[in-house]
Design a protein that fits this description.
The complex is a heterodimer of chains A (about 300) and B (about 950).
Chain A lengths: L3 E5 L4 H11 L3 E4 L5 H10 L6 E6 L9 E4 L2 E5 L4 H6 L1 H6 L1 H8 L4 H6 L2 H6 L6 H8 L3 E8 L2 E8 L4 E3 L2 E2 L7 E7 L6 E8 L10 E10 L2 E10 L6 E2 L1 H7 L6 H14 L11 H23 L1
Parallel strand pairs in A: 1-3, 2-3
Antiparallel strand pairs in A: 4-5, 5-10, 6-7, 6-10, 8-9, 11-12, 12-13, 13-14
Helix pairs in contact in A: 5-8, 9-10, 10-11
Chain B lengths: L1 E7 L2 E7 L5 H8 L18 E4 L2 E4 L12 E3 L4 H8 L35 H9 L8 H14 L5 H7 L10 H16 L31 H6 L14 E7 L5 E7 L1 H5 L3 E5 L9 E2 L6 E2 L5 E2 L5 E7 L2 H9 L2 E6 L6 H5 L15 E9 L2 H7 L2 E9 L11 E6 L5 E5 L4 H12 L6 E5 L15 H11 L3 E4 L2 H7 L5 E10 L5 E11 L7 H10 L9 E9 L14 H18 L4 H8 L19 H18 L8 E12 L9 E8 L5 E5 L8 H13 L6 E5 L16 H28 L7 E3 L2 E4 L2 E4 H10 L5 E7 L16 E12 L6 E11 L6 H20 L5 E2 L2 E2 L17 E7 L21 H13 L10 H10 L5
Parallel strand pairs in B: 1-5, 6-19, 17-18, 21-22, 25-26, 32-35
Antiparallel strand pairs in B: 1-2, 3-4, 3-5, 6-12, 7-11, 7-13, 8-12, 9-10, 14-22, 15-20, 16-17, 16-19, 20-21, 23-31, 24-25, 24-30, 27-28, 28-29, 31-32, 33-34
The chains are: A alpha+beta (about 300), B alpha+beta (about 950).
The structure holds flavin-adenine dinucleotide and FE2/S2 (inorganic) cluster (2 copies).
The site of one FE2/S2 (inorganic) cluster has 12 residues of chain B, from loops.
Chain lengths: ~300, ~950
Amino acid sequence: MKAFDNYHLPTSVNEALTLLAQYDGRARVIAGGTDLLVDAQAEYYEGQRSHFDALVDVTFLADANEIRAQDGFIVIGCGVTHTQIVASKRIQQTATALAEASAVVGGPQVRNVATLCGNVAHALPAADGTVALMALDAFAQVSSLQSHVISNQWKPLATLFKGPAKSAVDSTREIITALRFRPLGEHEGSAFARVMRPQGVALPILGMAVKVEIREQRLAQVAISAGPVAPIPFRAKQTEEFLRGKILDDELLRQAAQILTNEAQPRTSAHRATKEYRHELLPVLLKRTLTQALERAR
Amino acid sequence: MTNLNMTVNGKPISIEIEANEYLAAALRYKLGLTGTKIGCDEAECGACTVIVNGTPVDSCIYPALKAQGAEVLTIEGLAQTWAATEPGVATEPGVATEPGVVTEQGVVTEPGSVTTPALHPLQAHFIHQGALQCGYCTPGMLMQSKHLLDHNPNPTTDEIKVALKDTLCRCGAYVAIMNAIQFAAEEMREPNAARQTVIPNLPATKAPLDVIGKPLPRPDAIAKATGAAKYTDDYAFPDMLWGATLRAKFPHAKILKLDVAQAQALPGVRAVLTHHDVPGSKNHGLIYNDWPVLCYDKVRYQGDAVAIVAADTREIAQRALDLIEVAYEPLPVVDNPVDALKPETIIVNDGTGHGNLLKHIHVEKGDIDKGFAEADVIIENEYHSPFYEHAFMEPECSIGRVLENGRIEVICGSQIPYEDRRQIAAALNMEEREVRVRGALIGGGFGGKEDIAAQIHVALLAKATGRPVKMLYSRHESLVSHPKRHATVIRVKTGAKQDGTLVASQATIYGDSGAYASLGDKVMTRAATHAAGPYAVPNVKIDCYAMYTNNPPAGAFRGFGVTQSAFAVESNMDELAHQLNMDPFELRRMNALRIGSTTSTGQVVKESAGLLECIRLVEQEVKRQRDSNLQSPVSKLQSWGFAAAFKNTGLGGGAPDKSAAEVEVFEDGTAEVRSSAAEIGQGLPTVLAMITAEELGLPYENVRVLLSDTDLTPDGGPTTASRQTFVTGNAARYAAKGMREILAETASEYLDAAPAQLTFKDGYVSQNGHKLPFAEIVKRARQENRPTRYLHEYFAPATKPLGVEGDMHFGFSYAAQAALIELDPDTGETHVLKIVTATDIGRALNPLALQGQVEGGIMMCLGNALTEEFIVEKGKVWSDLFAKYKMPSIKHTPEIVSFIVEDEISAGPFGAKGVGEISSIPTTPAITNAIYNACGVRVRRLPVDQDALLLAMRAGKLET
Ligand SMILES: Cc1cc2nc3c(=O)[nH]c(=O)nc-3n(C[C@H](O)[C@H](O)[C@H](O)COP(=O)(O)OP(=O)(O)OC[C@H]3O[C@@H](n4cnc5c(N)ncnc54)[C@H](O)[C@@H]3O)c2cc1C
Ligand code: FES
Ligand code: FES
């Protein structure tokens, strides 16, 4: 029944990576466990008997529980929970979309242990934190042992995903030790919104995050991310391109929505949403997030 | 094994645990702190919430080792966090400690031997506001609330909703919970003020008697609020083994081979049993004996039990299941009731000798063709409703033990203890008196704990091993195995005159009763007899087919079939009102059942019919609010919808409906009332204590209640059909009366008055200013060798079977409800803002418990409309985790405005009739009718699907 035998609580990255190396693929990183442990149970009932010799908890690593400013970035450690994100004044002010996304993950007890890094590492295209981070052009620091030496590499978030629940990070050998992004400044704003279904799984039907920068009334920069509209987290490049440099009005919004519905490829997921419904929601969420972000940028 | 050191409730502790153990399990099974409950093991329900280093976490998936060195606070330590700051907080007046707690050793503690603890303000106000019913969610709810108040001394309802979003209460006590938290916050802001027991704001009811009619807290409230209350899994015995069940791999298959040798060989396994090891009846069942104890020839649904194991640990038992070899030959799967009836379809179960047809129910009155010929307008539609899950917060658990004299004892949370005993004895080939069924507290039932779950299995395993055996279902196992609410297809045709008079009502109903009968034919009979709605219709024809399929069995579920037919009928009625351009209230009023009208089954309503009053009250309130509340947000559509309903009280249909209760009086001036009737959170002990106290003239606190022990309490019959207040209430009342008459004989000699002239009141017996304490009378009665116990077996008024002239039921409860909803036109999302409800329940015996039933029923039916759907695909359960079955949470809770109509029924105890189900029936159609009024789309399929709704709105379609 239990998906693991041992549970380790290392206090340094080195110790954690060494443990993983010792188990040689038979141990896995765990943070809040709200995806890992719950999924393992669901899989068990489906007849799968996946098993880890050990879980290596990364929430007690030194400095892992901090949200800090460094080199012009906001850096979020791998022990930082959604509750911390929501409570952080800095994030509320300079990455509002992320605070909004973390605020809707699960309920308070889940948010108290679930981490933002875990949300990313789980690699679902609709994960709320991931959707927000995509719009913020975030990076992830992937730490691993390369011939007994720790290697830390900052990678663009978008390069971390291979498919639904398939991460490019190998959580049996590598750790996402931190996330970072540039805090929004003056004339910038961001927003997140999602639509849920009251029945069935707690995965959003559609989530969207937007970041804008305004110069002389014009949309100097626009970033739009949405999920699930593709097997991996998605940036609406064509829509962003179309909007860039323009002044937002109803007509422009209508045209942007048209482009967005063309470039996004939502699918029907059983017991969750039809493709057609998701198509209807794309313009709705675009309008909600874009107007909200613009208001914040002003 | 590794060492875990932590501080729990202020005390340092050190225990040995497995590295893969979770905190909830360590607290419960290693430390015996069973106040922390497990509802799901998947971070969905919050029942297991404890506070670790100041942060509330779901302890069910919190690796115990993570708490190394931490400060952990559980429900057991909550009171002391307040007492620590506030020494000497008064105990609660008016609340007795839990009467007769059965301890682990099986000893019944003497009442009063548990001292009342000083309570945390949250605990005190939860008790007084009625914020706990079955109590299973209460520990988690309190811990999460404590954390909220620690950080926010004055939370708004919106802030409470955010904090408790994922802490679920299936009894639906959310309104009371929010009130309790706010009162507690108030008290905590003024820590020096004395505790005020705030009486909740309840609807007006008749002036109370001495005890009856007062909003009294539950007798078990303190135990439930402090974590002391014991549910089955909270019991443990020395040498106890863990059981596990191998379930079917296919929804329909022949069993070709069954080999348990490997499982038996696994170290730590003590027994592996199959159908070969069932010495007695191979089948069980409440009405039809059609459900294998362990499958022998074939499996009929995914939850079917094929083999059972007892082992030293739960893990080993579970592992042993993987080693049992079963060879199957899959058979075609029958996945809906309409196909099931086709002659070419394979037979799933021939339990009643009619193939897949469990029962054809036919209701006929007048001449249906003539009726439709007279109609000016005819509305005909087809409605669909899925299976629904009870989702009681406490998963099923049973413990079997062999007693010293060779008898078998089963401890479980059962809605029908004597039925359990009968079925256990039959399977074990024992006499019924050789089996003792002892009910533990039940964490919610709602109809889902009437059938046998593991009761027989643990008895078999205990007998085979000679050791106590516990079987605790995981949430997954609970979901796939126990009976559901019937999925239905209902075609209804309604005919009316231009002025709105109903002239004909016809319905064809297909009910999916799944693999086994359970109470399926009774449930579908109720669906059929209520399918013309609470209206007097001269011409009625209803055909209902309860069918066997390869889906999970369907049985009793609060509303008992009427929930489904009410949705269909009330949708049609609403459409009719629109077609006729009539006020929907007026249409219902014109046709409502009243004194003198005849129901579809030919029963003449002679008394206690408060439907007209219910409609009047709701209409008045809605019209008042409509006038005063016209401004609505620009982007969302707000609308009202209306529906009415009725529901029988008691079994009816000619079934002998009886219950027995015993009252015993003691020399300390107390009394005990006993019956094997189940308390599933609805408040039965409160009502029995109140009735007994009223009749004996005792203070409420002086009456203890002992329920559900087949050795100690007489048979109270099933807890179903909203019958317990009526039948067991009456049994208790007559038993108390009988007891009083005996005491009166003694007292009359000392007080020099005729027995009939004596007054029993406030613990005294008096006449003309002379009085003697009740205790004294008992003492003297005993000296006179008079009996101090009185047993009464009560028979409810006789009823007639369907199709036979006369009364099919001895009474009905009525309700009318209006829902105010808000529909987001951009997304199709629906939120219920307000429910106005009026309920006729005869007499409000306890307005506090009644309010809990009304609000809880509404929440459950709101789920029925908007959030819940138990999905089964080709016989395979998709909704096999709480993560895939969403019950309403506190954030769905609307404002509820409740009116109580007390149209007394002469045979009821103090005029009371059924309460438990009626309020949960009209909510769904009230909501779907409101949706129509908001957007012009009729909902024909439950639950409301925002996806389909939006697409229909966009496409200009009129229905989904
Ligand atoms: C009731 C409930 C409701 C939920 N609701 C939502 C919701 O609304 N929106 C949403 O997006 N999610 C939701 N979730 C999912 C989950 O809570 C989040 O995705 C959460 O952020 C996961 O974080 P975690 O720390 O618990 O991850 P874990 O479960 O510990 O890990 C998840 C995966 O990532 C890996 N991993 C974790 N941390 C690292 C790391 N630092 N480096 C490398 N690999 C790592 C693990 O090996 C595992 O494969 C919900 C979960 C539950 C139980
Ligand atoms: S959340 Fe832990 S038991 Fe449900
Ligand atoms: S009281 Fe909340 S689940 Fe029963």
